[in-house]
Amino acid sequence: MVQGARPSYAMTVRGTGDTKNPGKTIVVGDRFHGEVSRKWRPLAADNPYAALTEQVRRGTSVATVTSLLRSATELRKDGDVYKGAAPAGPLAQVPGVGPLYASLTRTTGAATIDFAIRLDRLNRPAALWLRAGDPKAEHAVLQTTYADWGRKSVKAPG
Q: What 3-state DSSP class applies to 88?
């Protein structure tokens, strides 16, 4: 990561609707690429996979993890996993990541965001789970794993 820059990611994403099939994407700065027929191609910002990739980038960023921990009204440790809950309203006001929480609140009606963060042996995030809304009703789940911290940089294809 470059201080002050948005993080670059290489990931496989899957959502609902137009993104129900898993898709490999890379985002560097404001440029999105997707693997189509085994070839990397630029994606327009309004492409559903580019939009989902941006949501995942925002939802799994260092700023997001930090905002969850700082806003938590509940936090407990269970082995290498921290579990907690944070009120959605204050999270929606956090610069940079607030729009993600505002969207989750609008979509699900959630008053809180439940989360769990698993750390690796060097205390870096290894996995993150977010849930907004009642699991038995309208809800949204974001789940990610982190790997290769500092081992290789993410570069735009081609």
A: helix
What are φ and ψ of residue 7, in 5° steps?
-65, 150
**Tens-place pLDDT, residues 109-153:** 889 999 999 999 888 888 999 888 877 777 888 788 887 777 778
How far apart (Å, rounded) are the C-alpha atoms in residues 107 and 133? 9
CATH domain 9-145 topology: outer membrane lipoprotein receptor (LolB), chain A (2.50.20)
Quote the distance between the C-alpha of residue 140 and its chain's center. 12
3-state SS, residue 109: coil
Q: Are strands 81-87 and 23-28 parallel, antiparallel or unpaired?
A: unpaired
Q: How confident is the model at residue 25 (pLDDT cuts 50, 70, 90)?
A: very high
Residue 48: in which H helix or E strand, if any?
helix 48-60
The model carries a pTM of 0.77
